[in-house]
Amino acid sequence: MFLELTKFHGGGILIVMKFGGTSVGNAERIRNVASIVKSHIKRNPVVVVSAVTKITDALIRLAKECAQGKGDETLAHIEDVHYGILGQLDIDKALLKENLEELKSLAAKAKSGRSPDAEALDYFQSFGERISSKIVAEQLNRIGIKAKAFDSWELGFFTDSKFGSAEPLKIAYSSLDKNIRKLEIVPVITGFIGKTENNEITTLGRGGSDYTAAVIGAAIDADEIQIWTDVNGIMSTDPKIASNAKTIGKVSFAEASELAYFGARVLHPKTILPAMNRNIPVKVLNSFNPKNSGTTIVRKAGKNSHIVKAIACKKGITMISIESTRMLGAYGFLEQLFDIFYKYSKSVDVVSTSEVGVSLTIDNDENIGELVKELKEISDVNVLKNKAIICVVGEGMRRTPGVAGKVFTALGKKRINVDMISQGASEINITFIVGGKDANASVKALHKEYFGG
Ligand code: ADP
Ligand code: ASP
Ligand code: MG
Predict the structure, then answer these.
(1) How many domains does the chain have?
(2) Whether the Cβ atoms of residue 89 and residue 27 lie closer than 8 Å to each other
């Protein structure tokens, strides 16, 4: 017996439910996901899934190994993980035959080739979500929910051709809306991946399934976008750094954006904008603890007893300090400077300026040799690697004097040296740079200051 959907197809409630890698990490987790979806069936769920945990990493490794004529072991591991899950769910291997054959032939071809470019890497990575979506859809059918797996492009998820960080095309929104509304089953859609109009597979960037869910949610004007993960929502900091981190019940789109942008991995930074544009609430929920109410992200989060809501941290940052007396009283210097970053497609995260100096950070310092050479033509340049951004966020900070003083006093007590400080124009965050080795200690000290423990 199949449970009927209350609608789909032309009206009523639609929700997007996205499940991350650990949520679909093994057979038991997939059973659990299916039962969570079933419990929301009256709200017409549109399901988005990530690859099984660690499979994306394995696929990237496979692509790189193939270029060196290796990769057999990794390929066998990827097959074993998925076949193991099928075995435990009692699903026939035939379900994944086509995908796994295609992956095998891709790997064989890659062996005769050079090291994988961004396009090849995206093609390899796509198998994670293409496979997990099939398993989840099959499990849903097993428990009486009519479901079907879709590669996102089958429903119109087309992107530009920026492999590794593709952006959905404008037309994707209307196609997704039209195609999803026609369905009379629960779609289980691949997160993270898309296709160009020339039929090339793209990815949205690591962790991008959240973004897929938000784009689909905006496209169909969903009532709610649910991000199901492995913790009880957005917390006061990463619970892996401070074990007493607490769930924040409500945050604003602006606060969530800052946190995601500055390292709170629980949400991909691009997730917020599509939801915010259509004012769709985003819920962050725990698939390991579905009764927990998690975090709701809305336009206005209202009052919270905490001035500081959360502390985010992003490691592996490179800081570039530029000093030039030519800046003094001159105009056009900053423009010249940022033009150089633009030319080398390096996006700058944090900036702080003084009369004769500018400090800024980038999170990807691949091939910066040429960029630094050009900077040296106009200024003295100092490059410092292995830094971390710490970001303290809360809308209450806007109205509360003394937050910065308290933050830096707490760090001073721990003898942590701060390299650079910046406060966003929105005044809902204080962002600063410390050495990578001091990152966890900084987060712990600030967490203790604001949340105790
Ligand atoms: P998924 O596979 O479900 O997408 P991710 O691993 O991408 O999950 O994100 C969840 C992880 O984000 C958590 O396990 C946690 O360690 C980390 N994290 C970092 N900062 C935060 C935060 N402020 N609140 C909650 N989790 C956080
Ligand atoms: N599977 C992809 C990754 O590991 C996308 C995601 O999980 O959101 O990055
Ligand atoms: Mg994630």
Answers:
(1) 2
(2) yes
Strands (E), 99-183: 147-150
Query: Ligand 3 being an ion, which residues bring their Cβ within 5 A of it?
Result: 20, 207
Q: For residue 263, tell me if it sits in a domain.
A: no
Cα–Cα–Cα angle for 284, 299, 225, nearest 5°?
35
The sheet with strand 418-423 has its strands ordered as 348-353, 357-362, 310-323, 380-393, 429-435, 418-423
**Best of 48, 229, 234 to mutate for ligand 1, by most ligand atoms within 8 A of CB?**
229
Phi, psi (deg, nearest 5) at residue 123? -60, -45
Q: Do 15 and 43 meet the contact criterion of CB atoms below 8 Å apart?
A: yes
Which of 160, 163, 97 is closest to 130 using CA atoms? 97
Q: How far is the CA of 426 from the centre of ligand 1 (A)?
A: 25
- Residue ranges of alpha helices (H) inside 158-241 are 170-182, 209-219
In a domain, 281, yes or no: no
pLDDT 10s digits, 171-219: 999 999 999 999 999 999 999 999 999 999 999 999 999 999 999 999 9
The whole-model pTM stands at 0.95
- Pick from 230, 254, 274: which residue ends a domain? 230
Using the 3D structure, point to which of 181, 210, 230 is the last residue of a domain: 230
